[in-house]
Amino acid sequence: MTTPSFAFPQPLAEKYRPRPIGEFAGLEKPKRILGKFAANPYPSAWLFVGPPGVGKTTMALALAETLDAELHHIPSQQCNLSAVEDVIRQCWYVPLSGGFHLVLTDEADKMSPAAQLHFLSKLDATAFPPQTIFVFTCNATDGLEPRFLSRTRQIEFSSYGIAGEAARLLESIWQREATGAAPPNFARIVKDSANNVRDALMFLETELLAI
To answer: Residue ranges of the alpha helices (H) in 25-125?
Structure first.
C-alpha cells in the first residue's frame, strides 16, 4: 500500500527563503564577506549580530548549503551544556559530506552560562574540533562574555538600506502568488515591519489569503 503524496502549502518565508548567498535582500557587506569565505573556507567561529528578521539564521543555512556542510542546528533557547557537548562530540567525526561540519547556534546570547563556558574551551585553538565552522546568531552581544566575543569573527546584519530590495521582493512574490488582484503598498508593508523581512512576508501572506 503506497502512501499518497500531498503538496502541502508553505509559509512564504520558507517558500522564498534565499538559498545562494547572493540572493539576500540588502546585507551587502555580509554577502561579500561570506561569499569570499565560502570560496575558501577554513575552521573558524562567526557571530552574526543584528535585529530580528534580517536573515541571520537564513544566511547561516545558505552558507551550509553552499559548502555542502553537515549542519548541526541548536535552536534558540535550547543551547545548554548537554546540547553543546553532544554537538562537539559529533564534530570530531568526519563530516558525512567529507567537507565541513557547520554548527549553527541561534540566540547565542541566551545560551546557558555552562554552555558558553564549554564553547569557550572548544573555540580555543588548542581544542577546536577539526573541519568545523561555528556560526552564532544574536540580536545583541550583552549576554556574551568578552572572552567569547574575542574568539569569534563578528558580522553586523543591519536593516539599514534593506527597504528598497525588500519591497521589490514582496512585489515579485505578489506577482507570482496573486491572481491579478490589486497589490498592496509594498513599501508601506516593509516600513510598518521595521525592515523585518520575515514579518513583512507574514503580513504579505495574510494579504494573499484575503483575496
So the answer is: 28-39, 56-67, 81-91, 113-123
Q: Write phi, then psi, for 134 (nearest 5 degrees).
A: -100, 135
Strands (E), 106-199: 132-138, 153-156
The C-alpha cell that represents 108 in the structure block: 547565542
Q: What is the pTM of this model?
A: 0.87
- Look at the block and give the residue holding cell 556574551: 144
Sign of CA dihedral 112, 119, 75, 45: positive
Q: Mapping DSSP to helix (H, G, I), strand (E, B) and coil, where does residue 101 land? A: strand
Sign of the alpha-carbon dihedral angle for 20, 26, 30, 35: positive
Q: Which residues contact 180 (CB under 8 A, 6 or more apart)?
A: none
Q: Residue 38 is which amino acid?
A: A
Q: Within 13 A of 38's CA, how many CA atoms are on the CB side?
A: 20
**HSE (side-chain half, CA atoms, 13 Å) at 130:** 6
**For the segment 51-83, what is each residue's pLDDT rounded down to a tens digit?**
998 999 999 999 999 999 999 999 988 999 999
- Beta 44-49 vs 70-74: how paired, if at all? unpaired
What's the distance, CA 102 to chain centroid?
12
Residues of the chain short of pLDDT 70, as ranges, are 1-8
